[in-house]
Please model this.
Amino acid sequence: MTMDLTSALDYLDRAESIVRRVRETQIDAIASAARMCADSIAAHGLVHLFGTGHSRIPVEEMFPRHGSFPGFHPIVELSLTYHTEVVGANGQRQAMFLEKIEGLGQVILRNFIFGAHDSFMIFSNSGVNQVVIDVALEARARGMPVIAVVSLEHCLASAPRHSSGKRLIDIADVTIDNCSPAGDALVHVDGLQYPVGPGSTVGYAVVVNTLKCLVAAELTRRGQPPLVLTSGVLIGSQASAALFDRTYDDYRDRVAQVYGRGMKH
Model:
């Protein structure tokens, strides 16, 4: 019996639509964010990255992986993002509970030292949970420009949860829409009550890598070409290993200040 591929093809069509919408509607916002990031990195500052839940995915997509470079600083709390256990210790219920605890964001950021040239990028599909609002407000209070990457449709359909009454888009200097729909899932299957196939991961990946390319181009234009993690398939295993070491050393030196060396709080 031949499998009906309608749902798979529907997902691919809708995923392509997300990519197209990012290209058609978000390139100006991405360019503005890229300039902020390039300004931070060129001044030897950092672009801090934060996300909870599945919004951890674009944090890891930014750095470190092939085709990425130092200057981005991932901040990921395992208690808010460790989803593979699902139930039991470190389960999904705990993570979803904790991301709604107001005040936790300030506690998280208290562990770091931020520099005068740093900026902050926050990923949240809904843009309303208390922890991401805490982090955004604290970043602004510390003088850092804030970039938000959200599903704008989902965010606007969600009631604010933070006591400030703000959504992430109300705090950010630049907002980028990942162009996924409210509810995230893309495909309605006949006979199935609810849709399947999330789209935000596609939108996140497109936004992150488009921005990454613009930042690399701008840094190179400024005479500061970044060290890019590059596969041995392209440059040979020995050269790749040496470049990895140089890149990780550069990253280590950049983030040293964040953990209390070289700068005062």
The longest helix spans residues 200-221. The two ends are 66 Å apart (CA to CA).
